[in-house]
Write a structure and sequence with these properties.
Strand order of the largest sheet: 1-7-3-4
Helix content: under 10%
Structural class: mainly beta
Number of helices: 2
Radius of gyration: 20 Å
Number of strands: 14
Largest sheet: 4 strands, antiparallel
Order of helices and strands: EEHEEEEEEEEEEHEE
Length: 214
């Protein structure tokens, strides 16, 4: 269980999913990168004891659910609706993206987006500048955590670049798209023309148009 910064983790959980051959699909070094995406939300319930809370002098109101973000190599707060059952000492939540590591901690753990207000809605903003040359910035917001992709396509629908392809926590994000970095598997620059960028996260999908003008 990763905990390089010595955080106040009072309960930890490892989630594994095996096929008939015994292969663990949730292995952090495998093709799924330590998480798995589902078509529907998965309900998870984690348990804790009063003794675990007492050890750190915590109350149920301070409990935070965190998952291991392998891309950032740090713990990130799960911002989906989390229910704490004080009678049965359980924490329940739903997500369509399941991580292989979850922990229960307190608010002292550094959040990746601690200083950022959680957005109310999904948004994919118009890139700026537009038209652009040689680079532009694409910003988007996520109201809940989930597996997220942001890809760029040419006017024929061919994928040009993958800008985001990972589990993201709720927050505000921006990514730069440049013609020098866009052509995957080659060094040539993109020609002038119309391109599309598509954001997918959970059940949300949005596509916008941008123009490369040289």
């Amino acid at each position: 269980m990763p905990n390089r910064s010595g955080q106040n983790i009072f309960a930890a959980y490892e989630i594994n999913m095996f096929n008939q051959s015994g292969m663990n699909f949730m292995w952090n070094g495998g093709r799924n990168g330590g998480y798995m995406q589902f078509g529907n939300n998965i309900d998870l319930t984690l348990g804790y004891t009063q003794e675990q809370l007492d050890f750190y002098g915590l109350t149920e109101n301070e409990i935070k659910v965190k998952y291991w973000d392998s891309s950032l190599q740090s713990w990130a707060t799960l911002n989906n609706n989390v229910t704490v059952d004080k009678t049965n000492n359980t924490v329940s939540f739903s997500s369509n993206s399941v991580s292989n590591f979850y922990v229960l901690s307190d608010g002292s753990v550094t959040d990746v987006n601690a200083a950022t207000e959680i957005p109310a809605d999904f948004t994919l903003n118009q890139n700026y500048p537009n038209p652009f040359n040689p680079s532009t910035t694409i910003s988007y917001t996520l109201p809940v955590s989930g597996y997220t992709t942001l890809k760029v396509y040419d006017i024929l629908g061919r994928e040009i670049a993958t800008l985001v392809n990972e589990l993201k926590q709720a927050g505000n994000y921006s990514v730069e798209f440049g013609t020098q970095l866009a052509r995957q598997g080659g060094s040539s620059e993109l020609p002038s023309g119309i391109y599309f960028y598509k954001l997918e996260s959970g059940n949300y999908t949005s596509t916008r148009k941008m123009i490369l003008m040289k």
